[in-house]
């Protein structure tokens, strides 16, 4: 398919690097003159807070308004960041929208319906999903062309993964024929550890050819950057983290056209 790719960054396991990857991969792609929109679909609002410094309680209107209010368009909520990407921020109100969306007729397609008019403005739309297979993640899967699964090669890396692949299949069969898992990002890799190497083998066996060759190493700079409300490229451009996400961006451009 020509045109933009809409990529849902998923894993219902918490703390595996979804937000770190969503933010830094988005900024990395923008340095290759790609137009990128980052959608924060997590009520924790980590992307919004760490990237924009939007207060979790006090931020202005958010993706929540887009999802639950027919009269609010994506365009009026999008913010432009000084790091070259657009962001559709989240805030804590989104948690309250869960019940509302779950109970509404078009609750699963709300994001896709609203994204339609702006999707063509972007080469890539990344959706930072919450650590749950809830209505928000379903909305992301319905709107997406691609799923990137973030996996940390630690003890039991595949827990929950089968449930995720099953959910992707159900959404593909019923609501979104084009959806596919086209990338697996190995995050927080420490290949000196035996358990890490064993996990990487296990992940490769399960996902075979969709695992990205570019791995993201453990790097404390990636952990520090959000508290300075910066991407890794602004906070520590010479770090391993910056190098790894830049290499990943190149691989994404090669493998996933957009
Ligand atoms: N490569 C890395 N090296 C070191 N720390 C990292 C790395 N990637 C992410 N982190 C840190 O690990 C923690 C979890 O990462 P992150 O918030 O990106 O995960 P997540 O999957 O989005 O979590 P959640 O499921 O809660 O949304 C954060 O403190 C982050 O700064
Ligand atoms: Mg997150």
SSE topology:
Elements: E1 5-10, H1 18-30, E2 36-40, H2 46-52, H3 63-68, H4 74-77, E3 79-80, E4 86-88, H5 93-102, H6 110-119, E5 124-128, H7 135-143, E6 146-151, H8 161-174, E7 180-186, H9 194-207, H10 220-224, H11 232-235, H12 240-255
Parallel strand pairs: 1-5, 1-6, 2-4, 2-5, 6-7
Antiparallel strand pairs: 3-4
The structure holds adenosine-5'-triphosphate and magnesium ion.
Adenosine-5'-triphosphate binds at residues 14-20, 42, 44, 46, 131, 187-188, 216, 218-219, 222-223, 226.
What does this structure look like?
The chain has 258 residues and is α/β, with parallel strands linked by helices. It has one domain (5-255): P-loop containing nucleotide triphosphate hydrolases (Rossmann fold). 43% of the residues lie in helices and 13% in strands. It has twelve helices and seven strands. A seven-stranded mixed beta sheet has the order 3-4-2-5-1-6-7, sandwiched between helices. The radius of gyration is 17 Å and the shape is globular. It starts with a strand and ends with a helix. Adenosine-5'-triphosphate (ATP) binds at residues 14-20, 42, 44, 46, 131, 187-188, 216, 218-219, 222-223, 226.
Which properties best describe this structure?
258 residues; alpha/beta; Rossmann fold; 7-stranded mixed β-sheet; 12 helices; 7 strands; 13% strand; globular; binds adenosine-5'-triphosphate; binds magnesium ion
A few lines on this structure:
43% of the residues lie in helices and 13% in strands.
CATH superfamily: P-loop containing nucleotide triphosphate hydrolases
Helix content: 40-55%
The string of secondary-structure elements, in order, is EHEHHHEEHHEHEHEHHHH
| Count of folded domains | 1
**Shape type:** globular
Query: How much beta, percentage-wise?
Result: 5-15%
**Separate helix tally:** 12
Which residues form runs of ≥5 with pLDDT under 50?
Answer: none
At the third CATH level, what is the topology name?
Answer: Rossmann fold
Radius of gyration: 17 Å
Q: Spatial order of the strands in the main sheet?
A: 3-4-2-5-1-6-7
Work out the number of β strands.
7
Largest sheet: 7 strands, mixed
In whole angstroms, the N-to-C terminal distance is 9 Å
Please tell me the CATH architecture by its name.
Answer: 3-Layer(aba) Sandwich
CATH class: Alpha Beta
Mean pLDDT equals 92
Helix/strand structural class:
alpha/beta
């Amino acid at each position: 398919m020509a045109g933009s790719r809409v990529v849902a960054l998923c894993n219902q396991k918490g703390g595996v690097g979804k937000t770190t990857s969503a933010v830094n991969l988005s900024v990395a792609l923008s340095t290759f003159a790609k137009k990128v929109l980052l959608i924060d679909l997590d009520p924790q609002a980590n992307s919004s807070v760490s990237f924009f410094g939007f207060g979790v309680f006090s931020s202005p209107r958010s993706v929540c308004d887009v999802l639950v209010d027919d009269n609010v368009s994506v365009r009026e909520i999008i913010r432009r960041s000084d790091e070259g990407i657009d962001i559709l921020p989240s805030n804590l109100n989104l948690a309250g929208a869960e019940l509302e969306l779950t109970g509404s007729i078009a609750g699963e397609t709300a994001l896709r319906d609203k994204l339609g008019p702006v999707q063509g403005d972007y080469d890539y739309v990344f959706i930072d999903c919450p650590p749950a297979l809830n209505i928000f993640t379903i909305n992301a899967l319905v709107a997406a062309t691609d799923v990137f699964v973030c996996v940390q090669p630690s003890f039991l890396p595949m827990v929950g993964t089968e449930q995720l692949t099953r959910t992707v299949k159900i959404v593909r069969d019923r609501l979104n024929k084009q959806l596919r898992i086209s990338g697996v990002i190995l995050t927080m890799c420490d290949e000196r550890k035996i358990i890490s190497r064993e996990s990487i083998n296990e992940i490769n066996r399960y996902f075979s050819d969709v695992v990205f060759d570019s791995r993201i190493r453990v790097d404390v700079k990636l952990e520090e950057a959000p508290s300075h409300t910066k991407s890794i490229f602004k906070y520590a451009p010479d770090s391993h983290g910056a190098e790894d996400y830049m290499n990943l961006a190149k691989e994404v451009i090669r493998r996933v056209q957009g």
